[in-house]
Design goal:
With about 220 residues, the chain is α/β, with parallel strands linked by helices. The chain is built from 4 helices and 16 strands.
């Protein structure tokens, strides 16, 4: 843990503990500052997990100022609950994974920072992470997953080369059209629930939209 301007960074990890919850509770017990930043490393945390972290912090009279992580799921979850969030890009050159060239291509994530406007087209050979809105008239496509840290109002195509396990996640999922592999669906008409990120995936041969918590 490091102290800076009365803020303490807590790293939650599972390697030395039974689980991340026990790790967090143990570190909060010895904490002197009440402003904390949570480094979740590569943990994939849902909105329910983020809420539980917040509850544990509150029980120890601590206030969370920021979440950071290398997991897009964790970042989308914390952002959807209104927390300042920082996505950490892993240094691929230090990766200890022994992966072949095909998997290396698939693991690449393309980042786009800013609104994707009408008439724009983005395509990625791996996953696509967008920090901004996708406006009506814009098209975004990826061979892997699409994660939008904002509103999806245009057209999104995940698994564009046939990956039926690909997903589309957004803080607000109200697209003109959704495509996953060869499946096509229109976006829902009802208003989204505030603060609830959503995800589209293929289930029983159809594209379904569910809260991000349920994955």
């Amino acid at each position: 843990m490091n102290s800076e301007n009365q803020k303490t960074i807590i790293t939650i990890e599972e390697s030395k503990y039974t689980n991340w919850k026990l790790c967090l509770k143990n570190k909060l017990r010895i904490l002197k500052s009440n402003l904390i930043e949570i480094d979740c490393k590569d943990l994939d945390l849902s909105c329910a997990d983020i809420s539980e972290i917040s509850d544990i912090a509150n029980q120890n009279n601590c206030k969370i100022t920021c979440f950071c992580s290398t997991s897009t799921k964790t970042i989308v979850s914390s952002q959807s609950l209104g927390y300042r969030s920082q996505f950490i890009v892993q240094n691929c050159s230090n990766s200890t994974l022994q992966i072949n060239e095909q998997n290396l291509i698939f693991s690449k994530t393309h980042f786009h920072h800013g609104t994707v406007r009408s008439g724009d087209y983005l395509d990625s050979p791996g996953d696509l992470l967008i920090l901004g809105d996708v406006n009506p008239g814009a098209i975004v496509s990826a061979e892997g997953n699409i994660i939008i840290w904002g509103r999806l109002l245009g057209i999104a195509h995940a698994g564009s080369k046939g990956n039926t396990q690909a997903t589309i996640s957004a803080l607000q999922l109200r697209p003109v059209q959704l495509r996953i592999a060869k499946k096509v669906a229109r976006g829902p008409k009802e208003k989204p629930q505030i603060g609830l990120a959503e995800q589209a995936s293929i289930n029983s041969e159809e594209i379904v939209i569910s809260p991000l918590d349920s994955i």
